[in-house]
């Protein structure tokens, strides 16, 4: 039997809208519902190898027929979110491009069109699958018609399954809906008759007509009275739920056949929507990809260097170059454990060489020959994430002295809001090239091999593509950086910072693992004690790490009020929700305490010792310049920036980090209230500027101003509230957020914020100006000119738009703070090198720098670091750096 899949397109789009969450394209337009819709359509086609399919959309003015029966029909239903309307149109467009037939009948709801198509399909000998979760459509299920539930992994629902779900047969679904009503469509149903009652009555009496004709046979006087008094409402409800099967629909089989995709248009469509993953999955040859603005080299020549003559010719050619693209092939991503397998070079787009170190020539001969190139001060090198290559080459005494460009950082500077800056992604996105995937060389899983086991010719092609495409991307990005005035940030900040970060990564940070071993025993005991207290409070043991079990315990067994539903049978157990419930039951605060300790145990206390490099006895984390959209550095493998500083347990972890040598210390230098000082600078608020110039306690000053009391009368609680407002202003916090944070009423929080802005009108003006600037320019900028695109400022979704407005205000502050510490790091590192000091920088944690140094250098470092950090940028208020010295990180 032929199969036909009928898709309730609007149902899919609505489900996707709320399931996928905010997604936007380069124009800041919402695309999440569209992406989910496409994924669902693709899954149906893949799972069932469909040949016949149609997507059904609501027609315009589709409420008229049922509203003639009942004026309130669907009147309580909220309109679709504003940013969903455009996605309806795009879904229609996608279907057209993907060859999927569509139908949209004016004045007709999708349900009626689906019912009519189902009727035609049944008569025409099709087995029909209705793809929707709308319960109205379950009445169509028969021996030839099935429901397909996308939200349940494309589960097929037959007659037996309908009865299992609703307690009635498909033929009874119409009466079932008439009795219980439907709040989403505002179908009234019978008062007090829910789904269980409706199913029970129909199981006993079979039909609604029989029930209405014999109301006294139903048990319960109240139910009998309702059946008598609301008979007309029940019949009207059934009429409203009845599907119209007389809609004129195509009756030719060809109208439901999936056609050929319009590949070229699909590519353009996916690119416009920023659906790069979908682009990749098209599995196209390079010729099918769109023409890009990047010029293709006239000739592609990838050379393999195998003989002494090859090597000599390459060295001669490279020695005459001013700029060389370089890429290393290694056995590991870990800079300390990786072995060099080969090096790729490019001197122009399309022209590349691969020099293997595991071929015919001795490794030492190759390295000695290439050393003359790296020792040449006149030559600059560039690459994609060249910091990694810098590390690897340095291990083999090949020292890059000049770095001219990094395509990964360039991509990040131009599009910091994007998370993907990998070479494979950029090659596809900008050059229209599918790079050879690394998995095709080294495989994955149990079959994975090392790069030095891969065939040299395969590596030659792979590595040559790397340097070739990197060279092309450099030419492309250079023009864009110049056009957007970002070139100076790359050249003067990000490139010099590579050397600083590389030195920090190479040195690492010492960890006394014995301290963490002691802490582990203590933590495990604390965790067990808290678990026992929770189980005693609850009355039984359960899996604390299972959201489902925890939800059942909190909201069913303990009877707490669920703040908001996640599913019909499960409620949120997130940290914010539990914090709101902490006062209702002692077990909740214990659960929060358990989570904090368990995270410390698993993420740090147990994990950190395993990340100590045996050769150095130190941890070597990686600092990323192209992750945080604010411009801040991020830290990974491990992330030491996130070790809690305010909790006792977090401070205990920091005790384990200490100088490796005797008579050495740590020095910590931390910018004081940097973002508030930047707020004073940008807003030019006279009171804030004066407070900072006079070295006043800014939170005390704000409290005195807002509460209108002398400084001497400001209480600890007043200062705490003022501090929350000072920092909340930076992040666009409103009355609700403030009231939750400091435990006051919404009205008090609102009055507090109003009083703050009345006292600091320039701050209010600054916030308005930031939003206005971004609305006009579509980007925010830092003091030195770093830009962050914020296209979402015009999004029709209020939540997305509000988030964009917060970014508009916060980006100049947090971004400038990030720029400031980067400038300071470069200048401090330069001084350390010039003065040939023994101490060094080992860690950066947002606004703080940590140094490890011999005790005799403490006076030098204290003076040097403070002076440079406080003078890295000139502001309208003084910069202040707090310097602390200790025998471990905790003491700092």
Detailed description of the structure:
It is a single chain. This protein is of the alpha/beta class. Among the domains are: 2-158 and 244-256, 3-Layer(aba) Sandwich (Rossmann fold), CATH 3.40.50.1010; 300-493, Nucleotidyltransferase, domain 5 (2-Layer Sandwich); 509-619, Taq DNA Polymerase, Chain T, domain 4 (Up-down Bundle). The protein is built from 35 helices and 23 strands. It has a six-stranded mixed beta sheet, with helices on both faces. A six-stranded mixed beta sheet has the order 7-10-9-8-11-12, with helices on both faces. β9 and β10 (351-356) form a beta hairpin. The longest helix has 37 residues, at 798-834. The chain starts with a strand and ends in a 6-residue tail after the last strand. The relative contact order is 0.07. Residues 565-569 have low confidence and may be disordered.
| SS elements, strand count | 23
Q: Which CATH class of the domain at 300-493 applies here?
A: Alpha Beta
CATH superfamily placement of the domain at 300-493: Ribonuclease H-like superfamily/Ribonuclease H
Which structural class fits the helix and strand makeup? Answer: alpha/beta
What value does the Rg take, in angstroms?
A: 33 Å
The unreliable regions are 565-569
Q: How are the strands of the largest sheet arranged?
A: 3-2-1-4-5-6
Distance between the termini: 75 Å
């Amino acid at each position: 039997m032929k199969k036909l899949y009928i898709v309730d397109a609007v149902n899919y789009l609505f489900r996707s809208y709320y399931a996928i969450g905010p997604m936007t394209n380069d124009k800041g337009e919402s695309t999440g519902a569209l992406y989910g819709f496409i994924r669902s359509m693709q899954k149906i086609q893949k799972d069932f190898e469909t040949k016949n399919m149609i997507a059904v959309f609501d027609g315009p003015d589709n409420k008229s027929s049922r509203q003639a029966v009942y004026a309130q029909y669907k009147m309580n239903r909220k309109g679709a979110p504003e940013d969903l309307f455009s996605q309806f149109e795009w879904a229609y467009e996608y279907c057209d491009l993907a060859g999927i037939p569509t139908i949209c009948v004016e004045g007709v709801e999708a349900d009626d069109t689906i019912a009519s198509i189902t009727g035609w399909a049944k008569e025409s000998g099709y087995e029909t699958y209705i793809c929707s979760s709308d319960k109205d459509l379950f009445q169509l299920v028969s021996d030839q018609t099935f429901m397909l539930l996308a939200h349940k992994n494309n589960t097929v629902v037959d007659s037996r399954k309908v009865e299992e779900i609703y307690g009635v047969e498909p033929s009874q679904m119409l009466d079932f809906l008439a009795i219980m009503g439907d709040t989403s469509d505002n179908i009234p149903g019978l008062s007090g008759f829910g789904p269980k009652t409706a199913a029970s009555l129909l199981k006993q009496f079979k039909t609604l007509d029989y029930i209405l004709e014999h109301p006294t046979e139903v048990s319960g006087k109240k139910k009998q009275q309702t059946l008598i008094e609301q008979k007309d409402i029940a019949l009207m409800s059934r009429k409203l739920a009845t599907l119209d099967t007389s809609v004129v629909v195509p009756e030719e089989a060809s109208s439901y056949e999936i056609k050929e995709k319009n590949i070229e248009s699909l590519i353009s469509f996916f690119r416009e929507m920023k659906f790069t993953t979908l682009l990749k999955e098209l599995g196209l040859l390079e010729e099918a990809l769109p023409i890009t603005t990047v010029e293709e080299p006239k000739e592609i020549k990838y050379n393999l260097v195998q003989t002494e003559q090859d090597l000599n010719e390459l060295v001669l050619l490279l020695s005459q170059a001013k700029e060389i693209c370089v890429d290393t092939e290694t056995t590991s991503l870990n800079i300390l454990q990786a072995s060099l397998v080969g090096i790729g070079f490019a001197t122009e787009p399309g022209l590349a060489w691969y020099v293997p170190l595991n071929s015919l020539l001795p490794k030492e001969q190759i390295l000695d020959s290439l050393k003359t190139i790296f020792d040449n001060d006149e030559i600059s090198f560039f690459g994609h994430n060249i910091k990694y290559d810098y590390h690897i080459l340095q291990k083999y005494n090949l020292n890059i002295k000049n770095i001219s460009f990094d395509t990964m950082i360039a991509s990040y500077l131009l599009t910091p809001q994007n998370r993907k800056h990998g070479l494979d992604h950029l090659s596809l996105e900008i050059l229209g090239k599918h790079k050879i995937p690394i998995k095709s060389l080294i495989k994955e899983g149990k079959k994975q091999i090392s790069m030095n086991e891969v065939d040299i010719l395969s590596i030659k092609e792979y590595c040559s593509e790397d340097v070739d495409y990197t060279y092309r991307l450099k030419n492309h990005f250079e023009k864009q950086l110049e056009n957007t005035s970002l070139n100076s940030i790359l050249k003067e900040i990000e490139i010099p910072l590579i050397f600083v970060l590389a030195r920090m990564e190479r040195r690492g940070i010492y960890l006394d693992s014995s301290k963490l071993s002691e802490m582990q025993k203590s933590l495990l005991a604390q965790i067990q004690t808290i678990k026992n207290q929770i189980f005693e409070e609850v009355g039984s043991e359960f899996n604390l790490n299972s959201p489902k079990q925890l939800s059942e315990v909190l909201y069913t067994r303990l009877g707490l009020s669920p703040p908001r539903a996640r599913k019909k049978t499960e409620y949120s157990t997130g940290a914010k929700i539990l914090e709101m419930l902490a006062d209702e039951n002692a077990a909740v605060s214990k659960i929060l305490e358990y989570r904090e300790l368990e995270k410390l145990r698993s993420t740090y206390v147990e994990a950190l010792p395993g990340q100590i490099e045996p050769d150095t006895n130190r941890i070597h984390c990686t600092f990323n310049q192209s992750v945080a959209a604010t411009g801040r550095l991020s830290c990974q493998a491990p992330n030491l920036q996130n070790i809690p500083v305010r909790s006792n347990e977090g401070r205990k972890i920091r005790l384990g980090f200490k100088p490796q040598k005797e008579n050495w210390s740590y020095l910590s230098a931390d910018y004081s209230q940097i973002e508030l000082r930047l707020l004073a600078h940008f807003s030019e608020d006279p009171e804030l500027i004066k407070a900072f110039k006079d070295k006043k306690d800014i939170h005390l000053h704000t409290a005195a101003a807002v509460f209108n009391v002398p400084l001497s009368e400001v209480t600890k609680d007043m200062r705490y509230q003022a501090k929350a407002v000072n920092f909340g202003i930076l992040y666009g916090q409103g009355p609700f957020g403030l009231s939750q944070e400091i435990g006051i009423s919404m009205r008090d929080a609102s009055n507090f914020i109003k009083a703050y802005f009345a006292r600091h009108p320039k701050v209010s003006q600054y916030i308005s100006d930031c939003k206005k600037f971004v609305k006009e320019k579509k980007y925010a900028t830092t003091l030195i000119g770093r830009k962050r695109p914020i296209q979402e400022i015009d999004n029709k979704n209020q939540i997305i738009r509000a988030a964009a407005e917060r970014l508009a205000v916060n980006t100049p502050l947090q971004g400038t703070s990030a720029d400031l510490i980067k400038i300071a790091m470069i200048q401090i590192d330069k001084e350390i090198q010039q003065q040939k000091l023994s101490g060094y920088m080992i860690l950066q944690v947002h606004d703080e720098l940590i140094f490890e140094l011999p005790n005799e250098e403490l006076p030098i470092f204290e003076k040097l670091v403070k002076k440079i950090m406080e003078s890295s940028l000139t502001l309208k208020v003084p910069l202040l750096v707090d310097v602390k010295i200790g025998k471990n990180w905790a003491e700092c």
